[in-house]
Amino acid sequence: MERVAAAAIIDALGRVTGWSEGARMLTGHRAEEVVGRPATGLLAEQVPAEVLAARRGTVALRRADGRRTDIALTACPVLGPDGGTTGYVLTAAPPFQADPTLAGQAFQQASMSMSVFDLRQRYLRSNDVACHALGVPEEALLGRFFPDTVEEAPHSEGFLRHLRQVAETGRPVRYESFTGSPTLNREHAWSIEMWPLRDPAGELTAVALAAFDSTEQYLARLRLALLNEAATSIGTTLDVVRTAEELVELLVPRYADFASVDLLDWVLGAEEPPPVPEGDIALRRVAHGSATEGTPEAAVRLGDAEVHLAASPPARALRERRAVVAQSGEPEFHRWVDERNALSPAGRPYRAGVHSMIAVPLQARGVLLGAVVGVRMRHPDAYVIDDTVFAEELASRAAVCIDNARRFARERSTALALQHSLLPRGLPQAAVEVAHRYLPCGSQAGIGGDWFDVIPLSGSRVGLVVGDVVGHGIRSSATMGRLRTAVRTLADVDLPPDELLTHLDDLVTHLAADGSGEEVAELGATCLYAVYDPVSRRLNLAAAGHLAPAVVLPGGAAELIAMTAGPPLGVGGLPFEATELELPEGAVVALYTDGLVEDRDRDVDRATEEMCRALSASADSLEDLADYVLKAVMPEQPADDVALLLARTRALGADRVATWDVPPDPAAVAHFRQAAVERLAEWGLDEEAFVTELVVSELVTNAIRYGEPPIQLRLIRDRALICEVSDGSSTSPHLRRAHAFDEGGRGLLLVAQLTQRWGSRQAGSGKTIWAEQPLPEGPLPVAGE
Fold first, then answer.
1. Least C-beta-crowded within 10 Å: which of 107, 536, 726, 785?
2. For 316-349, how does the pLDDT look when each residue is reduced to its tens digit (9 = 90+)?
């Protein structure tokens, strides 16, 4: 049957001026019945405002027989000579009916949103999915301008821009958009494709589009992006609390409106992990964050502990070792929210919209560390199964970082405790005044192997040591301890600095040979050993790959001591050279490790010059000078340990030392015994005369009997009374038990029992036997008293 178009013409006053045969067939009204009359007389009800605005849509008419009929109406304005509207041409068709063709059914029933727009971005067709997403029937959309059917938003503007682009260029467009819809209770991602429609002549007539809901793929990409970001943003420092904060910063606001990290107490200490309790679990808050400034939702303050009931989501997550999701409407969820409100009533308004939460255990290497909790309030989506899989993966990565930080903190604490236990504590010395500073580095490499020591030697001399073991951590600290012990042992033998370093080098070589290849690098070390004699006022020093010390003479500027720094310890086969210089009383010697002047961002020579300038500054005390040097020279964030040892020299004048040359005649022993007693009387040490007389007698007798000329007796009054007898023989004496009928062998045993300590030291030619007696505590003797 031939289809006749239904058309009508209405003038500017709303009167019908034209009526087609198709209009008669559609409505039953003949032309003579309607022409010249108001068009409103044909309406069964008022025309909807949106249809009037769009000039297109469904209109209800009253047929000639009185029945109501709905028609799809389109109004086209008629323009006069001046461009003004003189009327409208109305075309009408029966109300929309489903296309019975297979193609029409495919369009209408497609699983994706599909629509057709004219070239002015007005709806021509929309399928069921599109209408469901917009929440209106197709009849309410037909003929309407797209912006009039959606909210003003960036995604709507982008949609309209792409529609116009296709209408203007005739080329298809494909893009992605993330937006919500009136009837979908969550935001959705759409993959949208628009393409032009053409008539048989090739003229562009409309624009069609298909929108595929790609929300799951979009969210999966977001989760993957968060996991990738977690790999670089979590664990940037080896600090437990900072790592927890980084996890919260990653979660809020993209994954949660509020997030918190609570840890078991043992994680923040040095204890071993205890078993997780079966009932209530106490956790300590270390980090939290919120999409709201100030984190008002937090019911627990940072650093405070909270006991979670056994049935609460965090306790269940720890006990079951899996993510636990709780939603609004569940008893445990509301009980948990009520607990939050009871703990912090001030945060109740900010928790009013909470509707979903997830608690995930933090576990690494099979050990539970704590739990992370995410809460959604503004975020419309509830946590689902896919969120638990993602949360467990993210928590697993974060837990490894937290565990690494915990292990580092524990190792650092252990290494620091070990290192501090090996560093000297009280350093009272008669030969020098000492000030020292040790600052462990804060880098992720861990504590280094820097050390220093002040060793009392015989004859009121003192040994000054500073060293640096290559590497960081407990291994370096342990190696440092071994080297420090070795230096003290070798110093007790009174070896000269160059010989001491030779023996120390052999020790390091043997340690490296006995260890695995991995340990050899850790055993490399540098060391500087110096001996200062307050009687001769001479400083003898040698270095094994270590930086030269600086010296500041009274009233002068600091200068580096010109010396040859031998190879580092462990190289072997190369000699060490000793340097000797005489220092006036009051000179300051500065020994330091490379962490003070070496840094990747500055020049070593310039930093050394800054150190010398700082050492030359006037200070009220040696302690103040040490502080000033660190402040002026040390980098803001040192990458290595820093050790600084300052020693101000003292001198023992002639009034504190008595020296006699002894002829190799046993008859002279009595004379020198009496001379020693007289000198003690001059020093006011009459109470020590008896023991000193016996010691002088035994040591001088042994030197005459068993030693070789030249023989010399020396008494030194310092913090202790020191008696020294030297001779030209290199044979060292030793204690032995005398038998009942032996005529000798009791002298050194008597000396050992009467004095505080005794020993012998080798010189360039010969040896010296010495013995010390304690003196009553009093002011430190100085030259000239």
1. 785
2. 999 999 999 999 989 889 999 999 999 999 989 9
3-class DSSP string for 495-543: CCHHHHHHHHHHHHHHHHHHCCHHHHHHHCEEEEEEEEECCCCEEEEEE
Residue found under tokens 């569940």 = 330
Degrees, nearest 5: CA angle 775-779-784: 100
pLDDT on residue 278: 79
β-strand partners of 88: 10, 77
Give the separation between CA 603 and CA 310, rounded to whole angstroms.
60
Residues forming a β-bridge with 212:
191
Residue 564's CB is within 10 A of a number of other CB atoms, namely 12
User: CB-based contacts of 253: which residues, under 8 Å, 6+ apart?
Assistant: 291, 379
Exposure string for 427-446, b = 16+ CB within 10 A, e = fewer: bebbbbbbbbbbbbbeeebb
CA-to-CA dists, residue 491 to 74, 237, 452, 484, 579, angstroms: 109, 41, 14, 10, 17
Contact 662, 650 (CB under 8 A): no
The pLDDT of 142-163, averaged and rounded, is 87
| pLDDT, tens digit, 9 for 90 and up, residues 624-658 | 999 999 999 887 767 678 889 999 999 988 888 99
Per the CB < 8 A criterion, the answer to whether 641 and 450 are in contact is yes
Peptide bond into 710 cis (omega under 30): yes
Which band of pLDDT confidence, cut at 50, 70 and 90, is reported for residue 520? very low
Q: Which helix (H) or strand (E) holds 266?
A: none
390: how many CB neighbours lie within 10 A of its CB?
A: 22
Mean pLDDT of the chain: 85
